[in-house]
């Protein structure tokens, strides 16, 4: 079974992101705290923190909404402007997945979704089961 495998990496000279085909790796090793991949033509660094990963995934719709929380914005179905949460289920239920949102980032969510999706304004956002 010959499946293609790719690793998200950074080219250190220009900080550009790439999907490195593992079949192109000649060798890899540690330099300081970072894994470094060597190919025939280039050197790549392994992504080591959330900021680097968010930079890579931002074009696919991810945005930072809270410290350590990065959300794929088109997956949000509801939000709570009082408690600072976004939800991903529709319909909502008491075990719905949610992520936290800082007060400063709540404006991004409010621009994305109509007020009718703000559960803080609903009488009973979580139906009885």
Automatic annotation (TrEMBL):
GO terms for molecular function: DNA binding. Residues 15-114 form the HTH LytTR-type domain. Pfam families: LytTR. It comes from the Bacteria. This is HTH LytTR-type domain-containing protein. It comes from Xylanibacillus composti.
